[in-house]
């Protein structure tokens, strides 16, 4: 039975409609309350007045990090590749430690000097270069855009599965199906509450979405284990899986230990320094908040994976093993009918087993809540990324190169404009991709999740140097980050669009070998760090006074008298 | 020896002890990354592929949980000992 038919077979009644409508009303209410509590300053819109407590900080960091991938993509990979991908969880304690180790330094100097974006800090360390600022903004952009698109797509898929019987409608001559309705509803709602309430409403909604996400992950795992006869029977069935599914590099042969280790080290750190997370360090009320968030993140979140949602993927592997069709690994028909159907495993498993376990009424409520949790995972990442993109483009591009003299009000309106344009652009790309399955940029986006992290990783050498060493120079930083971006670019399918066939084959051969061995971000990081270090040896360092003042502000926080000191005094 | 008789660390000794602990914890964490998701996996991979289990749990799953516990233990120890902030 196909996935959609499975869902239709289960009489969900109006329960999902009611739960989704309540959820949407709540999100809008948060947007409005955030607006009512906000002040007019740019700092308040982007950093919620820098006074977020432990609960909000930890949950907003978690919710920002975990997109629909946490509830759909990662369990899907476990279902496809077995136990091997489970080791990806071991990146989370490192990510958690980074929240305090990197975050507390970012917080201190951010508070003292009134920074809002990552580029504010890095360029201030090396001498305020506009080129360096644009490169850092570009890294943020390359990370953020694929994530927004992916989250909007998830909204469409969820709508398709939750409301399979909804008829298409005609709007201005265009046929709008349930997929398009889902993408429009998710993106417009997310855009509205980010526009209205800024960081405050994004963080509040992240709290609710984070709680839903964590509970959803644990409930899904528990339901799977119980449905398979309890822990003893569950692990007994797992130990009978085919040898490839119980060992590395997994059935698809791509998860070698070196690749897993570099992925755990560099993908995690790059995710923790992407613009949305970086701004959350500025927004925390104190380093103590970050320290507590780090401990919650390092311990609770991996448990939700290891003892929660990952068990769903493993259970499905035992119950519905993937099948090989014409040399291509496909999900079992009970899970999905296309190669991309691996992502549907959580919903398929829950739909099949939860109502049987908990009874039709409670079962349908729990399934609906978990589906809302998946939606929450998508929205919480989309909102944070939209908000961060708005800050980056406003402060690092508009304010620096287009209208340097713009007032705070003008910048705030430009930032809101960025949110609207980015949402509409992402929505357009998603729907274009749906209409034309061969539309390359969209086909690439699904593969770009790890590539996006790899781009973000290119900020890491600069961030580590600025926060701990301060041995680099502005020219070194520019050369390093440029070479890192170019190296990661070679791993994407884009070089074939601009290089000759012979050169493309050589590049593909090299990058194919390297990406089989290591994480892509790690490859870019090594080149970036080496170029940064070498060029820094031969170029002019920032003045001693600047470096000493920067080092002092990293250690001791001195709250500013007024946000205007920074925003006007650049 | 009664508690009151244990000599207290001087201000110079405290950072030095923390510095040492910082290096030890970093070393354990890196070791856990090498042994957990890294090449240390090869130590149990053949046993895991043959359907081997630790207390009924598939070997690689148990391996992942163990090294997660080590990593989390390091972070908790750091939280309780060396993560001190001047602002606190």
What distinguishing features does this structure have?
heterodimer, A: about 575 residues, mainly alpha, two-stranded antiparallel sheet, two-stranded antiparallel ribbon, 4 strands, about 0% strand, globular, disordered N terminus, disordered C terminus, B: about 90 residues, 3 helices, about 60% helix, elongated
Output the number of helix runs of chain A: 25
What's the quaternary structure here?
heterodimer
Main-sheet strand order of chain A equals 1-2
Mean pLDDT of chain B: 85
Question: Low-confidence parts of chain B, pLDDT < 50 over ≥5 residues?
Answer: none
Radius of gyration of chain B: 19 Å
Q: Describe the global form of chain A.
A: globular
| Portion of residues within helices of chain B | 55-70%
- The N- to C-terminal Cα distance of chain B equals 32 Å
Low confidence ranges of chain A: 1-9, 561-570
- By secondary-structure content and strand pairing, the structural class of chain A works out as mainly alpha
Integer-rounded radius of gyration of chain A: 23 Å
Task: Output the helix-strand order of chain B.
Answer: HHEEH
Q: What class, by secondary structure content of chain B? A: mainly alpha
* Average pLDDT rating of chain A: 85
The spatial strand order of the largest sheet of chain B comes to 1-2
